[in-house]
Write a structure and sequence with these properties.
225 residues; alpha/beta; disordered C terminus
Length: 225
């Protein structure tokens, strides 16, 4: 009996180790995992989402079915990785996206029922990719992701820290313009300097009376006398 229990535990352990695991993708490791050469299926979910919990076993089966392919299967918790949720403009849960060559395609709900076929029959090519300007891997997407992380960080602060942060920002907004030179003042100084430069150039170019002109004037005055 004891030997049977040990054998059962070993079988379960081997089965667990051999079972493919869905990769947990986060704000911190996404750039190192999702490269331009890799192909991914990513599911965005939340622990409180009932539909996500129902979809989880099916998604695990997808990972198991694609374990012999080059496609990697991952998932993103929108609560712990708000930057990624913002970068991918996630609007509903669960959301599944296909990524290849950093081109992102949002998988329609009806196609999530057969994700294995979507990959093996390359049906993802029929889905229009996200615009390059707003892609999660563009400069705009990166900025939106950073904003999402900052909003999540700010929401985790205590009310006292929020008040202090707001006062600091208000002080910067009020005090900074005082020490910044105004455009009108700079323009007046530039005009005044330009006038002075013009006057000096004009004075330097003004001809001095020649000696012959002076002598002629003296002769005329003598003849009159």
């Amino acid at each position: 009996m004891k030997a049977f229990n040990i054998a059962t535990i070993l079988c379960l352990l081997l089965a667990t180790l051999g079972y493919a695991q869905v990769v947990q993708v986060t704000d911190d490791n996404v750039n190192s995992l999702v490269t331009s050469e890799s192909e991914w299926l990513l599911e965005f979910y939340a622990e409180w989402c009932g539909y996500c919990r129902k979809f989880a076993p099916k998604y695990e089966e997808v990972e198991d079915a694609l374990s012999d392919s080059s496609v990697q299967v991952g998932k993103v918790d929108v609560e712990s990785s708000p930057g990624l949720a913002a970068r991918f403009f996630v609007q509903r849960l669960p959301t599944v996206v296909h990524i290849k060559d950093h081109q992102v395609r949002v998988v329609p709900h009806d196609k999530t029922l057969d994700l294995v076929g979507l990959i093996k029959r390359e049906e993802w090519q029929d889905i229009k990719p996200v615009n390059a300007m707003t892609s999660p891997f563009s400069a705009v997407g990166t900025l939106v992701g950073f904003t999402g992380r900052m909003v999540k960080w700010a929401s985790s602060l205590s009310p006292t820290m929020m008040v202090i942060l707001m006062l600091v920002l208000l002080g910067v907004v009020v005090i900074l313009p005082i020490y910044m030179p105004k455009d009108g003042d700079n323009q007046a100084q530039n005009d005044e300097q330009a006038t002075e430069d013009t006057s000096s150039v004009t004075s330097a170019r003004k001809p001095e009376p020649s000696s012959s002109s002076t002598t002629t004037k003296q002769r005329k005055s003598k003849r009159i006398d």
